[in-house]
Specification:
CATH superfamily of chain B: P-loop containing nucleotide triphosphate hydrolases
Oligomer: heterotrimer
Shape of chain B: globular
Radius of gyration of chain B: 18 Å
Low-confidence stretches of chain A: none
Radius of gyration of chain A: 29 Å
Strand content of chain B: 25-35%
Largest interface: A-C, 110 and 117 residues
Order of helices and strands of chain A: HHEHEHEHEHEHHHHHHHH
Low-confidence stretches of chain B: none
Number of helices of chain A: 14
Number of helices of chain B: 9
Order of helices and strands of chain B: EEEHEEHEHHHEHEHEEHH
CATH topology of chain B: Rossmann fold
Largest sheet of chain B: 6 strands, mixed
Strand order of the largest sheet of chain B: 6-7-8-3-9-10
Chains: A alpha/beta (373), B alpha/beta (248), C alpha/beta (377)
Number of strands of chain B: 10
Largest sheet of chain A: 4 strands, mixed
Number of strands of chain A: 5
Distance between the termini of chain A: 19 Å
Chain lengths: 373, 248, 377
């Protein structure tokens, strides 16, 4: 191993990377744009539920219910309509998320001690959001019931009631941003490292300099080191920049240890660099390399738990996710950021990354060396 | 052995069932310009790449600078320079940066870097262009730079794979004058080409076709042996005669 | 407009495509993979919530509560542990997402007709998941208490009280509340962007990088014919992908389009036109495959995933980004998809989106022509 050779290779790689003006936005602007996009956009929070209201009863009781709905800060009554047909239009045209229909006999039934039916029409097109909206509405109705019962039956009625004290840990306000922003970091690193590593090697192949390098005393291992070290440095720098941005711009809590994050990044890079090397070995042109990168990235992204929870997947697919380095890295990043988890809980993920990384990297290096001969 | 810069016996390279190089035996003396001629696809590049240690021969024996091409390919790389027709330079870097890069890769001791850089820039007459992007330089300049980079570590043997393709005649003449001058310092030059007029510059040539040697010797003698009756014949006629005969 | 020239350019592009199996993979396998993944494996619905239980009370009543939770279709009790700290470690490690803790004396309190606390901890790191979990738990506890109340009245010999109001829920457009029903159609928008914009973003840049642009410039091919010739093979592939997606969605996952098939084809064609012109535009402006690809990801793929009302609702975004979504073509296509697939709407209501897509397609084509003309074609 000759370190001067490695050093000069790394130096050359940096010169080339920053010489091309078109690369600079790729390195700096693209990650930040993506971070901001994801930070602001990717939210599945249910905050502002729009409600269309049809009150056919028009009584004090029905107004009480309307106040209960409108007084809740999650709901916003945006449309008040007169005719039942209009309700269909409201939902069809996506004007409201929920429709509430109070029947004409509403007050009469309540006064008689019977149960009055309130129709809740939900736009189910985004099912996950709809489920939450519906249950919020049911909770409002339940609170309304308790209020009415208390008024109707002044007798003290204390029965053995299970009082659910629900506490949400790690992300008490259920802020989507806290969940997604740390994850983007992982995704960005993966995308950039895989693409840049494979491009750096393909470019040498395309321009014929690879052949030139092979008649020099440069050893395959030195070549691989020289080609990967720049991207390790860039990835770490990105990790730090993006983390700073996440913490200070988006106010994402960083509970855990930063060194642990950097160690995890290194382990994660083992697999991504390995895949980058692999792509460069099996591709002859930049186009091929990009297509191949994309077809690694896509399943990795989908099957990582980034947006779609792994626990929801069928068992077979869940097994497949064990081969996905992004999945481990995401668990680590989210654990460290939100839960402050340490190595004692995250060691299986670290072990997974290490084993996967070693296998992928070792395999790619071997294939790479074999192809060089 | 000591006077031979390159020596090969029965060298064979097969890719599956395709025989790229078949039983080549030859030798190159120290300090001579040795031409390796043949049509496209004759096996010239395969042979030169075997000698440079880029690919391993299937069978046979060979020595470059007294080192075994099977077992000592790494040591060989320290003693040879190589330039291909692509002038493999980093086009998005300046000549200066290219030179520095190859100085490092060839493990030239850092204390000699300044002196070697100066030598190359002088030799290639690129002193004034050293901070321009290589991509912007004319092909002739790039060729000189590529040659300079291949000589940074003062190799004993210089391998040139079709070094003058895509270069104008004047540059080509300068190039050969420089090569000639280089051999006076004891450097051996092994060159492949399919320009027969260039082959005249060689001390000795070998012509190969379909992986086999068809004729070898000093250019003038080859011409005389083939065309005893014609005075105006040249290597071109030899080449055409041999290659067409072989095809039929 | 010369059909033979267009044909020649299309044929050339077709050969490039056919010889490059990776592009073909992107054109055909990725769409299948996406549909399959989304239809089969990826879901935002929550129905398998892992619960860890700490029962300090150990009575029939506490066991009954735990059993009831486990019997619900949403929750899965993975086990009981002895210690609160162990339960919280389950949450830390992600082995369970809900911890249910019953303190000792819980049953005694209930029996004495007092309020009795059930401590519930939810792992909130995934807000979508946690939000839904929390609402399920709330609903579960409401129902549990209702039973308690009825039991109480019964014991006292009082007349049962009817809850004054009951919500009758009707879910429209997606009766079973399955995320698949909106994600599978939405995927068509993503697929078209991948095939249309990502693949074509390389085609003009490739001509520049290989130096063949010079040759084309010297040929008597007007810019319009050059563009149309380049676009046709991708247009055909895109339409095939759309058909395959519609078919797979229907056959494998039962996601059926309710409205007119031809409206769907019209919308897909318009959107494909937008995607293709966008890809070609990026390609001719950047002239570099690497940069073109990155920009294509950045301005076509990501916005159609994120800024289109596909998975992430626009109404939650900051005002400024809501405005940005107005210029993202996918927004309009997703709107049409939603209308055609889930709402059974026709042209009478969806026409604005059709019009906007048409305008976008036309404007981008003109822009393409201007850029190519300036390049001397």
């Amino acid at each position: 191993m000759n370190w001067i050779r490695v050093r000069e290779l790394v130096r050359k790689e940096f010169i080339q990377l920053f010489r091309d003006k078109k690369n600079r936005p790729l390195l700096i602007v693209a990650p930040l744009v993506q971070l901001i996009l994801f930070g602001y956009v990717v939210t599945t929070d249910v905050r502002d539920i729009t409600v269309g209201l049809l009150d056919l009863s028009r009584t004090p009781e029905s107004r009480m219910l309307i106040d209960a709905i409108g007084g809740n800060k999650t709901f916003r009554i945006t449309e008040v309509i007169e005719r039942p047909v209009d309700m269909d239009q409201l939902l069809l045209m996506r004007k409201v998320n929920l429709g509430v229909k109070i029947p004409p006999d509403f007050s009469m039934k309540i006064r008689k001690g019977q149960t009055a039916e309130v129709q809740i029409l939900a736009d189910g097109s985004m099912s996950n959001m709809a489920a939450v909206r519906i249950s919020y509405m049911l909770t409002v109705l339940e609170q309304f019931n308790n209020q009415v019962i208390r008024e109707l039956h002044p007798v003290k009625m204390s029965y053995g009631k299970a009082d659910d004290r629900i506490r949400t840990w790690y992300n008490p306000n259920l802020d989507s941003r806290n969940f997604y922003v740390p994850g983007i970091v992982a995704f960005l690193i993966m995308l950039l490292v895989m693409l840049l590593t494979s491009m750096a090697i393909i470019r040498e192949k395309e321009s014929g300099t690879m052949e030139q390098l092979m008649v020099t005393p440069l050893k395959p291992l030195e070549l691989i080191l020289g080609k990967t070290i720049p991207f390790i440095l860039i990835a770490q720098a990105q990790m730090i920049i993006v983390t700073i941005f996440a913490v200070f711009w988006f106010d994402i809590p960083l509970v855990g240890s930063i060194p642990l994050l950097l160690v995890a990044t290194c382990l994660f890079l083992l697999s991504t660099l390995g895949i980058g090397l692999f792509i460069s070995t099996i591709s002859a042109t930049q186009q091929e390399a990009m297509m191949t990168t994309f077809f690694f990235i896509l399943p990795f992204f989908m099957l990582s738990g980034f947006v779609f929870p792994v626990a929801n997947m069928p068992k077979i697919v869940q097994w497949l996710t064990y081969l996905n380095p992004l999945k481990y890295f995401l668990i680590i990043i989210r654990g460290v950021f939100l839960k402050g988890t340490g190595l004692e809980a995250l060691w299986p993920q670290f072990a997974g990354l290490l084993i996967l990384g070693l296998i992928v990297f070792w395999g790619s290096v071997n294939l790479f060396r074999k192809r060089l001969d | 052995m000591a006077s031979e810069a390159v020596a090969v016996q029965n060298l064979v390279k097969r890719y599956g069932r395709f025989v790229a190089v078949e039983q080549i035996s030859s030798s190159v003396q120290k300090g001579e310009i040795f031409g390796f001629l043949g049509p496209n696809g004759a096996g010239k590049s395969t042979t030169i790449r075997m000698l440079c240690g880029i690919i391993t021969p299937t069978s046979g024996a060979g020595h470059v600078a007294g080192l075994d091409i099977f077992t000592q390919s790494e040591e060989i790389k320290h003693n040879i320079g190589y330039m291909s027709q692509k002038f493999s330079l980093y086009e998005d870097m300046t000549p200066f940066e290219n030179i520095r890069f190859y100085l490092g890769i060839y493990s030239v001791p850092p204390e000699k870097w300044k002196e070697r850089t100066h030598w190359v820039l002088e030799m290639t007459r690129l002193e004034n262009a050293k901070h321009r992007l290589t991509r912007e330089l004319p092909p002739g300049w790039r060729q000189r730079l590529a040659l300079g980079c291949a000589l940074l570590h003062e190799p004993q043997i210089l391998f040139l794979d079709e070094p003058t393709s895509g270069v104008d005649p004047i540059t080509r003449r300068h190039f050969w004058a420089f090569i000639r001058q280089l051999t006076t310092t004891g450097v051996t030059v092994f060159v492949t080409t399919h320009y027969m007029d260039e082959a005249q510059h060689c001390d000795r040539v070998v012509m190969i076709n379909e992986g086999k040697i068809v004729v070898s010797g000093p250019p003038s003698r080859i011409v005389q042996d083939m065309f005893t009756d014609r005075i105006d014949a040249d290597l071109n006629d030899v080449f055409i005669q041999l290659m067409t005969r072989n095809r039929s | 407009m010369n059909l033979i020239k267009i044909q020649a350019i299309s044929r050339k592009e077709y050969y490039h495509l056919i010889r490059d199996f990776r592009s073909l993979y992107l054109a055909f396998i990725i769409p299948l993979l996406l549909i399959f993944l989304f239809g089969y494996a990826l879901s935002l619905d929550v129905d398998n919530i892992q619960v860890v239980v700490v029962d300090h009370d150990q009575t029939d009543l506490s066991r009954d509560l735990i059993q009831k939770i486990g019997a619900s279709s949403y929750f899965h009790v993975i086990g009981q542990v002895a210690d609160d700290r162990i339960a919280s470690r389950y949450l830390d490690d992600g082995m369970a997402s809900v911890a249910l803790i019953l303190a000792s004396g819980w049953t005694a309190n209930i029996r004495a007709d007092r309020e009795s606390q059930v401590q519930i901890l939810i792992d909130g790191s995934d807000p979508n998941f946690a939000g839904i979990t929390r609402s399920y738990l709330t609903a579960f506890m409401l129902r549990y208490n209702q039973n308690q109340l009825l039991g109480f009245l019964n014991r006292r010999g009082m007349e049962p009280i009817h809850p004054p109001v009951e919500g009758r829920i009707r879910v429209w457009f997606n009766e079973d509340l399955e995320s698949r029903n909106f994600i599978v159609p939405g995927i068509i928008a993503i697929i078209i962007m991948i095939v249309g914009a990502m693949l074509t973003s390389l085609v003009v840049a490739r001509e520049y990088e290989n130096g063949t642009m010079e040759t084309i410039r010297s040929l008597p091919v007007p810019a319009a014919e050059f563009l149309i010739g380049k676009a046709i093979p991708y247009f055909i592939i895109g339409l095939i992908d759309v058909l395959v997606s519609i078919l797979m969605g229907q056959l494998l996952f039962g996601v059926v389009m309710k409205s007119s098939f031809w409206l769907m084809i019209l919308a897909s064609s318009l959107y494909l036109g937008v995607a293709l012109s966008l890809g070609l535009l990026i390609s001719s402006v950047t002239k570099s495959q690497l940069v073109a690809n990155q920009i294509a990801v950045l301005i076509t793929y990501l916005p159609s995933l994120l800024l289109s009302n596909f998975v992430f609702p626009v109404e939650n975004m900051p005002r400024i980004l809501q405005l940005v979504t107005r210029i993202v073509p996918a927004t309009y296509f997703i709107d049409i998809l939603n209308g055609l697939y889930l709402r059974n709407l026709g042209l009478s209501t969806l026409w604005p989106s059709y019009v906007i897509l048409t305008i976008m397609c036309g404007a981008l084509s003109v822009l393409n022509l201007i850029v190519l003309k300036r390049e001397g074609l």
